[in-house]
Amino acid sequence: MIKLLFLLIAIPFTIQAQNYQKLHAKAIVVDSHNDILTACMEKKVSMDADLKGRTHSDLKRWKEGGVDAQLFSVWCDGDQANPYAWATREMDTLDAVVSRNPDKMVIVKNYKELKQAIKNKKLASMFGVEGGHMIENNLDNLNTFYNRGTRYMTLTWNNSTSWATSAMTETTKKDSLALAHKGLTDFGKQVVKRMNELGMVVDISHVGEQTFWDVIHTTTKPVIASHSNAYALCPVFRNLKDEQILAIGKNGGVIDLNFYAGFVDSSFRSKEIKFILSHAREIDSLREAGVQREYAITLITEKYASEVEAARPPMRMLLDHLDYIVNLVGVNHVGLGSDFDGISSAPKQLDDVTSYPLITKALLERGYRKKDITKILGGNILRVLKANEN
What we know:
390 residues
């Protein structure tokens, strides 16, 4: 009798496990933001090698995590002397990996090619340029990025350009004379219009509020926030306020959740600052050796992983952001933009790109319908990519 009772209790959990695994395998899973290209350059490794324990991502683990399409972030900070050349180098890096692994991945440039790649069981790969400073105020460079497979550009990173102000600038320098302009300039509006003409999605993650509203009033196509969360749950400058979320919903766009612990849990940042200060000398040494600050912090976090483990928020807090956005604008306007390999800490359980099935499982447990889960996993961002095509 006891044995029978155990079986009756165990069966639903077994069925649920099978259901989430089957659903995840059937869905088209798309991550709109992964920084492995920069990680590979900083750590001098290649993503087609076994990088377990060294990065969040590699070619084998994307397969294990059921990822069908990846938008690869092309990033450098605002201190790079030749940002366009740096971006080109990162794109060359991905092209080299693709050329070595034609049976496993392919650069795709439209929705039709993406679907064909998935049918052929290859990782559909696109670029997302993270920071408008990389076009160096030249629309010809924007055109070149598009021709190479860039299908979105984040208008700013934390640094502003001469034509668009970032969230960090608008937040930290709002009363400073150093803020020469706020929002999009006339050239900034030209950039947005040219992206619309090309079929390149405008990404508003990282941009200041004035820039955001200028984009909303300029664009004729749906936008994305490639890696952002809800300000109401975690009030940091990088997250979106309710009015912005509502505007993205009205625009037909998508907000892809950022896994960075500091944008998920408002209590994390103070703990991280304390950690950074305690290892400031080592971080400065890496900076002096030429490592960009963001990756210097990441390297130190990896070195002292046990110190930051306890500060990681539970995965449910990330899903709370998803619930919040869905309650505001509906399930058609949310997706995944992990920021893996560009972040120093993610919620517990989300250790690397093999963790995506756990999100599918958690969404089922929260009562989301299967068809809505497939939208969240990739359907929504695919809709926006297709809507931006010309």
